[in-house]
């Protein structure tokens, strides 16, 4: 298709072309091309009348290298005040041609109604020049117009006294010269009213049905929409109401809401007024500010109001209304750049010798220089600027002296402001609102926005002369239009985030929403209690967000993690037992339960859980659940969907029976419920409701407690759910050509995609969805990189994260990709996030039309091999397992949960595989909880002790596996593993004692070292004993706290008799946890407890104290160096006001460790000397550096000076 060579006329719409150089098209020129000297070329088309334009097409200049590759499209009714056309995404730029002959069509998403069109080239062929042929598609546009001068109105009187409607459709188009004014008003005596008005250039709709309270209150609530509606351009309004449901549409933006009031009809008395609210009996007097501007095509329920007024119909009263639209010449200028835009105008003295400047401005930016001029008296100058949304006028009299005046509150660029200031001083020739021009200085941010109505000393400034270069100077300006754009319309901030903006971008304030991110899209909370468990949390109250980034708000629940199953508990308003009397089937007792979560949140929680249950405790006396004659229910409960349920706790849905019938233990087997026996004594039909699709209980109805002696007692427990079906919802892909397919992603404006994967393959596509041109894809592009790519019409965008370790290591890795209108991001595990901002003027919507492919592509190439689980898109979890069951090459689930992660179970806890997930076996760990991370702590007093007796003689060598034994033998080492934590203020103190059947023992004592310090220190101790002391030793028992055995040496006995006062926590001896066993199995014959023991959380508190104190200690304490170089090793101890030490003792038991004190005197002198030396060395190092935890090794070697009866003492 070729456009006509002669382009001054068009085949579809006739009109005239005018160029920016004011010359018409030349015949046989092959198209329009401006002069090379034209700074800002444009091509203007006069259609001779208002036309509804639906499409445009462009082509380059015939037979040349001239074409336009990008342009703006402006339209106008007058040819003076122009408005830029923006496409559906708010994009103003149109894509043009790539050669001189091709035709590029653009169908307009919303039509243009105007007489003039202007094509403004932005880019053109770099090897040629601007060349353009255009064609416009559309049809004639006819309208009925009314002009309101600010004192006029139209009154439409009803044929009857009042008009009552349940459905209304009101439509009109308007353009306003001011930011305030009433467009429509009607009211009734019963409190009904409807008002449509402009307020601060936004459209506000007040609507109320049958609620007299709101009529007389000052708290009327308006629904507001759109902004900048006083720009003197046409805007369309459509109000649609059916009963209480209302749709308000302004231009292309629609808001849905439900109106206030008790009724469904709008009753208006006598009349509707348009353009103002006149006072009854006082023509020309109005309650509120009238509308000043033009309306067209004003329809009320199909009635053309303006047409009736033009034809002077009796039901219409028109006061001072004319039927043609006057066009004021208010021409705006746009300052495009905050760094280089300026307008320079000449300033002359007024007749009084003073200086006055007047103009109007509009901006979004809170800061910017509006005006600057030098005064005749050097170096004085005057500056007017916006600072923190306030106007500030500064008179600089010298470099050090200035005067300031501030005015205005929260301008924010949302209103037009008029400024008038007179100075009786000589002024410089020019007034420059920006930058250094002809001596003007601008050290601050330049103004970015719109200005109009310039006058200096009461002389209007003709900006056409400036544009033509005949007056003043300028740079980076756009004449005849205000290019300000409301970037908060529509509001892209989600979940109640507050939108604010500058000229070029918008910002979202997510404070208090529970969400984060550039558009408040991402929930800051986990989706379930199960997810909190995986982060290592313990029981407590948590906010969960079951639908993630979906529309539901977070809710507070209690997470019970003390069992193998993690329970989510949701309470309601009546958890205490309630006694019921005096109810009948005609007047039953009814209780409605209000939960701490909304019905929508409860539904999301229940549907996402593996199982839910709710206990119903029901006791009765002469109160039946079912009528014994016909079986009709006398009492029932209501489920989450509002359905009546007649089965009771423990039985199956749909059957009118109780749990005793299922268990066959009803007190009277002639009935299916105990209460139906109708006895004078109390009966019980308590049970648990576990059919989760019916939970929770929303209401209970009791109807048989009105007889003498009849009563019922009930209690509905909280809703309890466990499991998260999404956490381990997985699929395994084992063929490269296989994939799972799902419906098209609904992700036009925002999409967050998260999942876990593990693989051994070097690459593969995780998911892909494509459209005609747009696409979105996440893939493993190499063993070390994950890539997120998409295209929304601005060209492909690629984000990649590279890992320093392979990602195809058969371990679970987390991926989260997000794309919004503001930015895109990619996260892989704990690697640094990658962010990329979206272009401020680019396309916004991701348009997809194919299926979503998971684990592959539509082309069956580059498929993923491995496992994917927990795939969530915009808060919705995809059921991979369900799709995998019916897809070849893919299997449901993914084996190896435990092998896929190294941090699921802690502190020697054992990970056990389940069909969908895992559990932690903490039986051989000193810790408890779902992840073996909760410390087991006990507070001791002086008389307390815990003794754990081993079931059989416990051997060093028998305690090792074959592999471990071979390792120890290879390294000539054997030993025992001990670990515990303690906190005390006592010294000396007996901490732990291990005794054998051969009267050997190990004793760990907190010794006194004479130092006074308040520091908190965490120490690790590892002890190794080397041959030849690897003889058989049979361990008998382990004691914590006070020891009364008299077979130990005197110093040990003295410490043992004083016992231990403080906290012991997480005690581990090889695979045994004696302290934990003592708490859980106090009745066991293996456990002996003396004195008073109190379970506490002192271990966790101590950990917290350590954490806060370590930063201060780090610069003062050094690492403990190897301190055992001889048979006798003594390390100076540290005793503080609060001593907290973690000991890891790895010892190979010799035939002796601590025994009777024989042959010790020969070694005691040498031992004390060595102790003193090491204490001195330790103090020097302690003053030098600090380390939060210590691990020290002790080696006991063979020595000629040693005997089998030696006692070895080690201090730390």
Automatic annotation (TrEMBL):
Tell me the first and last residues of the signal peptide.
1-22
Per the record, the similarity remark reads: Belongs to the neurexin family.
Q: What is the phylogenetic placement of the source species in the record? A: Eukaryota, Metazoa, Chordata, Craniata, Vertebrata
What's the protein here called?
Answer: Contactin associated protein-like 5a
Q: Which cysteines are joined by disulfide bonds?
A: 867-894
| Top-level taxon | Eukaryota
- Span of domain Fibrinogen C-terminal: 520-572
What SUPFAM superfamilies does the database record attribute to this sequence?
A: Concanavalin A-like lectins/glucanases, Fibrinogen C-terminal domain-like, Galactose-binding domain-like
Query: Any idea where this protein resides?
Result: Membrane
Q: PANTHER family per the record?
A: CONTACTIN-ASSOCIATED PROTEIN-LIKE 5 ISOFORM X1, PIKACHURIN-LIKE PROTEIN
What topology in the membrane does the UniProt record assign?
Answer: Single-pass type I membrane protein
Output a single Gene Ontology CC term carried by this record.
Answer: membrane
Question: Which residues does the UniProt record annotate as the domain EGF-like?
Answer: 484-521, 895-933
Keyword Disulfide bond attributed: yes
What are the Laminin G domain coordinates in residue numbering?
145-325, 332-482, 729-894
- Keywords in alphabetical order: Disulfide bond, EGF-like domain, Membrane, Repeat, Signal, Transmembrane, Transmembrane helix
Q: Which InterPro entries match?
A: ConA-like_dom_sf, EGF, FA58C, Fibrinogen-like_C, Fibrinogen_a/b/g_C_dom, Galactose-bd-like_sf, Laminin_G, Neurexin-related_CASP
Residue ranges constituting the F5/8 type C domain according to the UniProt record = 1-139
| Biological source species | Oncorhynchus mykiss
Q: Which residues cross the membrane?
A: 1128-1154
One Pfam entry for this protein is: Laminin_G_2
| Primary localization | membrane
